[in-house]
Amino acid sequence: MLPLPGSPASSWAMYRVRLANIFSGADPRVCIAFWLFGLINNVLYVIILAAALDLVGPSVPKGVVLLCDVIPSFLTKLCAPYFIHQIPYPIRVLLFSALSAIGMLLIALTPPHTDGGTIKTKMAGVILASMSSGGGELSFISLTHFYGPFSLASWGSGTGGAGLIGAGAYALATTTLRLSSKNTIFASAFLPVIMLISFFIILPRKPMSRQAATASNRSEPLLIATDELDGVSDPREAEEEEGLLPHSSSLTESKPFVLSKSQSWGAAFLQNLQRSRSLFFPYMLPLLLVYIAEYTINQGVAPTLLFPLKDSPFKHYRAFYPAYNAIYQSGVFISRSSTPFLRIHNLYLPSLLQCLNLAILILQALYDFIPTVWIVFAIVFWEGLLGGAVYVNTFAEISDRVAKDEREFSLGAVTVSDSGGVCIAGFIGMALEVGLCSWQIKHGKDWCRQL
Description:
mainly alpha
C-alpha cells in the first residue's frame, strides 16, 4: 500500500521506492501487449455505440445498436469456453482481428440509409465485430493466466482506456476534424492490425510455448489426466506467489476436475458445465449485478437526468448525455487500472452499492430532489469507479483463489457475466427510458424530448 499524504512515510523518495516495489518483476513487453489487447478489443465496441445515431438515423431506437453490439458477444462468451481451448491462441488472434476488420468495413462501406443502404447490412457488420470482441475478451483474459498478475492489470487498464479513447476519438474526428462517420469507421477498421503487432511481435511467446508443450501431453487441455496427479504437491504456495497479492488470505478449496483419457468429449463438456456452476455465486453473480445496474443507468436513466440549462454548464440538453458518458468512462479507467495499488475482495459490496446508485438516479429522474447537476456528475463518476472495480477485481480474485489447473477455464467462463448484464440492461433500459421520459412530460418537463 502507498503511504497516506502527510504521513512520515509520504516523501517523494519513499513513494518512488514503494512504486518500484509494487511494479517489481513487471515485464514491459507483457504490460504493453496486454494494454493494447484491452484497448483494441474494446475500442471498436465503444466506437460503434458512439456512432449509433449516425448508423440507424433518428427514427430507429438506439437500443437496437446496443443489442446488436452485445448479444453476439454474450452468446460467444456463453458457448466458446467449452470448445475454444481446441483452437491455438495465434489462430484465435488472426480470426478475431479479421472478423473485427470485416465487420467495421461492412459498416463503413454500406451507404447511409438515406441513400438506399440497409440498416440490416450495417447491423451484420456490428454483429461480426461483436462476436470478435466477445471471443477476444475471453481469450485474452484466459491468456493472462500464463503471464502473471501484471498482464491482468494491464488488460483492465486498456479496456478502461478504450472507453475514453474510443468515444473521444470518434467525437474528435466527426466534430473537430469534420470527418464523415463513414470515413471515421473506415479508418477504425485498420485498428486490429495493432492487435496483431501486439501478439506476434511485442508479446513474449515463451510462457505460451511452455504451456503448449505441457498441454500436448494431455488428452484434454483444460482438464488434468489422472496419471498427472501423482506427486502433485499442495498448490497453495505457487498460487500465492502467482496471485496479485503477495499472500492471499484464503484460497478456494478446489480440487481439479479429473478426466480419464478414456472419457469422451461429452463427458468433458458436462464437467465444464459443473465447473461453471461452481463459479456462479462467488464471481459471476456480482459481475452480472454490477453490469445490469450500471448499464441500466447509462442507457435508461442517464438520458432523463436533465437540469435547467441556466443552472448547468451546457447550452443544449443534448450535451448532458455525452458528458455523463465521459465522466463514467473516466471512473472506469481509473478503477480498472487500480489493482496494483488497491484490491477489493468482497465483490458483492460494490455491486450492491451500484444497485443503490441505480435506485437514487431513478428517484432523481422521477422527483428531481438533487439540487445541482454537479452532484449527479459525482454519482456517475462513482458509478464508473464501482463498475470498473468489480470487473477487474473479479478476475484478480479468480487468479488468486481458483486452483491453477482450473484458472484458465475459469477466467474465460466468467466473462459471460458482463455481456449478459449489458444484454439484460439493454432491454430494461429501453423500457425505462420511455417510462421516465413520459413521467417527466406528464409533470411539466419535456426536456427529454429536446435531445
